UniProtKB/TrEMBL annotation:
The keyword rRNA-binding applies. Belongs to the TRAFAC class YlqF/YawG GTPase family. RsgA subfamily. InterPro entries: G_CP_dom (IPR030378), P-loop_NTPase (IPR027417), Ribosome_biogen_GTPase_RsgA (IPR004881), RsgA_GTPase_dom (IPR010914). HAMAP family: GTPase_RsgA. Zn(2+) binds at C270, C275, H277, C283. Pfam families: RsgA_GTPase (PF03193). This is Small ribosomal subunit biogenesis GTPase RsgA. One of several proteins that assist in the late maturation steps of the functional core of the 30S ribosomal subunit. Helps release RbfA from mature subunits. May play a role in the assembly of ribosomal proteins into the subunit. Circularly permuted GTPase that catalyzes slow GTP hydrolysis, GTPase activity is stimulated by the 30S ribosomal subunit. Keywords: Cytoplasm, GTP-binding, Hydrolase, Metal-binding, Nucleotide-binding, Ribosome biogenesis, RNA-binding, rRNA-binding, Zinc.
Amino acid sequence: MFNPGQLLAYGWNDTLPFDDHTTEGSEPGRVIRVDRGRCDVATSSDIIRAENGEHALCTGDWVTVRASGDTTVVADLLPRRSAIVRSAASGRSDGHVLAANVDTVVIASALDTDLDLGRIERLLALAWESGARPVVALTKADAAENVSTAVTAVTAVSPGSVVMAVSAETGDGVAALTALIDGTIALIGPSGAGKSTLANALLGADLLATGRVREGDHKGRHTTSHRELLPLPQGGALIDTPGLRGVGMWDAADGIDKAFPEIDDWAAQCRFRDCSHDTEPGCAVLAAVERGDLPERRLASYRKLIRENGWIASRADARLRAEREREWKIIARGHRRMYRTRGH
């Protein structure tokens, strides 16, 4: 019987389907950091450096590793049960995985600056789409005024999620947040939101570098430059991510619906099934805006995310079509060469 050893500290549980993926000479592990084709993997007894091989890996992945000559390589990648995916920062039509096999996504937003409700809604859609449970942590509460007002405003745009104010500096709210989260936790948010400071408070030690925000625009300095999985003292593990200056939707229709459930409920009452909630007669969503039941800002945020998600999806479809056409052309050229050879 396999002894998980130190993997227990990195989220091991008996439901992981390693029996279907472990072969002779390989052993289970979890990716704790990825860097230029290589990764650090926690195994039952050690943390080793391995080659990614043919796998596109991400922090949080469960893998098997085996020795290959003088190196260690990732032999297999287990299916991800959840993944935080955004559109690639390059603008390409593929997705960029931020973290894998996450149970709770903690969205950090600083209270010492103006709250960006649209950004919080965007991150909530990303979190819901991942399959994990989102929690909103309003950080730097010690430096803010009218904290309760801010919590109320964010709660109104975070249906189904817990919203709490915390201060890593004073410790206020940290114990409550610790009691709320379990399993593997991913900490996401913009630069300057105090993610690394909050992460250190959850970890119980200053393991991550922190830095001050710029005075001019209150933006952070990206003190976290990579994603790393670290064990939490109370159990579970934490993935701290670099500050997200831009978060694009990628195949996130379900996540958007979960972030805006009231719009989905009203949409079911629209006269037309394909109502776009723009100018159609009998639109229950527009009627809710007119009555004051739905803030116009929130509908505008919903429309923006839906448009963006649709645009990315159309680009992905076009890319897939182009790839299929390219493959068929290669096959056709091969057939023509074969027939010409037969003729000779």
